[in-house]
């Protein structure tokens, strides 16, 4: 009995101090295992039942007193639990959607890159087709420009077409005949320009002097004094050298200004290209420069210089003889044999 009393005291002290249910259970088990008497065990069992009953009554009273707060707390807890569960499910679904979007975006990015590259390729092909279409019209346009003596425009067109045919369009087999044709025309284009340059240098310039001489001859024939023989006035004749004189520019002796004046020469599509011989010869020189035939041009001018000067002398002699013969005829008709 003394042992059972000590065990019961330890049990009560443990119940009063310990609030851990597991510790209380261990204490009860220890008390029951140390007691040898069945009566003590029954007593301990009764105490436990009484304590449980008291705990149930206290719990019922507390539930009755705090029923509203407890109900609200339980409902709030349930609501919070449900929200947390729903939030977890939604977050899980959002993660899955994000992963799916990431995969789709990767696929779209590859597809967009492919479409972008295809767009660039198609644009390049369209540009090549437009260029081919324009180049096919070059022979006809070139013939028109040459017929109207728009040599600078013809040179630009020809050089650009040949560069395209021997560059980006080199692999186009269908343009082989056109490539050979335009290349041949480019190789012979400078011969036409050189002939035009010589015609303006030696023939057209002297023709202007001859026309001026004839006009002065007609004026002088009206005057009775036939002793005054009209002279060729070449002081105002426009020549390439005068075209490049420094007096025409703001800075005398400036070679850069001379080059700029040649670079600024352009064809006027509305005016006669041969109206101004100086500008026309500048256009011819510019065209020859674009054809990279300046050395051949210089050589041709040097080779034909003597021959052309002899022709000038021959034509001038013929003009002077014809003028003198006509003047003699006029004087003889006026009974002035002198």
TrEMBL record:
<dbReference type="Pfam" id="PF20652">
    <property type="entry name" value="Sec8_C"/>
</dbReference>
<feature type="domain" description="Exocyst complex component Sec8 N-terminal">
    <location>
        <begin position="46"/>
        <end position="144"/>
    </location>
</feature>
<dbReference type="GO" id="GO:0015031">
    <property type="term" value="P:protein transport"/>
</dbReference>
<comment type="similarity">
    <text>Belongs to the SEC8 family.</text>
</comment>
<dbReference type="GO" id="GO:0000145">
    <property type="term" value="C:exocyst"/>
</dbReference>
<dbReference type="GO" id="GO:0006904">
    <property type="term" value="P:vesicle docking involved in exocytosis"/>
</dbReference>
<dbReference type="GO" id="GO:0090522">
    <property type="term" value="P:vesicle tethering involved in exocytosis"/>
</dbReference>
<feature type="coiled-coil region">
    <location>
        <begin position="45"/>
        <end position="97"/>
    </location>
</feature>
<feature type="compositionally biased region" description="Polar residues">
    <location>
        <begin position="329"/>
        <end position="338"/>
    </location>
</feature>
<dbReference type="GO" id="GO:0045202">
    <property type="term" value="C:synapse"/>
</dbReference>
<dbReference type="InterPro" id="IPR048630">
    <property type="entry name" value="Sec8_M"/>
</dbReference>
<feature type="region of interest" description="Disordered">
    <location>
        <begin position="1"/>
        <end position="21"/>
    </location>
</feature>
<dbReference type="InterPro" id="IPR039682">
    <property type="entry name" value="Sec8/EXOC4"/>
</dbReference>
<feature type="domain" description="Exocyst complex component Sec8 middle helical bundle">
    <location>
        <begin position="273"/>
        <end position="322"/>
    </location>
</feature>
<keyword id="KW-0813">Transport</keyword>
<feature type="region of interest" description="Disordered">
    <location>
        <begin position="316"/>
        <end position="338"/>
    </location>
</feature>
<dbReference type="InterPro" id="IPR007191">
    <property type="entry name" value="Sec8_exocyst_N"/>
</dbReference>
<dbReference type="GO" id="GO:0006893">
    <property type="term" value="P:Golgi to plasma membrane transport"/>
</dbReference>
<keyword id="KW-0175">Coiled coil</keyword>
<dbReference type="GO" id="GO:0007268">
    <property type="term" value="P:chemical synaptic transmission"/>
</dbReference>
<keyword id="KW-0653">Protein transport</keyword>
<keyword id="KW-0268">Exocytosis</keyword>
<protein>
    <recommendedName>
        <fullName>Exocyst complex component Sec8</fullName>
    </recommendedName>
</protein>
<dbReference type="Pfam" id="PF04048">
    <property type="entry name" value="Sec8_N"/>
</dbReference>
<dbReference type="GO" id="GO:0032584">
    <property type="term" value="C:growth cone membrane"/>
</dbReference>
<comment type="function">
    <text>Component of the exocyst complex involved in the docking of exocytic vesicles with fusion sites on the plasma membrane.</text>
</comment>
<dbReference type="GO" id="GO:0006612">
    <property type="term" value="P:protein targeting to membrane"/>
</dbReference>
